[in-house]
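Quick check before the chapter quiz. The format below is the same one you will see on the exam, so make sure you can read both the input and the output lines.
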Amino acid sequence: MAFELPDLPYAHDALAAHGMSKETLEYHHDLHHKAYVDNGNKLIVGTEFEGRSLEDIITGTYNANALAQNGIFNNASQHWNHIQFWEMMGPNKSAMPSEIEAAINENFGNVGEFKSQFSAAGAGQFGSGWCWLVKDTDGALKVTKTENGVNPLCFGQTALLGCDVWEHSYYIDFRNKRPVYLTNFLENLVNWENVASRL
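Here is the expected output.
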């Protein structure tokens, strides 16, 4: 069964008041995300990965030693990444639930330190990629960054929060100001209820 582009969990203009414009979501979701779905579907036809879950395809094609991942991995991983990304944001600015706040305080000292580390990871990712808050295999919460489409599934981690730092995610609204985009993401766009549900 072919993968499909999921609808956004909100209207294209729902995040505009919080710093992510309708135009960005039209380009990012309707064009970029759709391209990952379409290209991935074409590439898996006739391979051992046809009919397998997105997660199985990602872990089955990831190669830690590859300078550039293969096309199946890149498209499947970016499809998965974007599904999470849309769900991790929301139009209603949400307070951080006590369970995620307690976990962040336990692992980072305080929420401010977590946000500082998360923003630094995203700003410091050279070229395209993602920054993440993950639950690691030892149960600890950590901030990580990954290049291109690589994601926490590749390392057996649970993605709690991820931010896309490919230029198509922020250039329309923030131009080259990636750190400002990251600050706005943390302060205005994160659906903290969704993050907490991933714990």
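If your answer matched, good. The longest helix spans residues 22-44.
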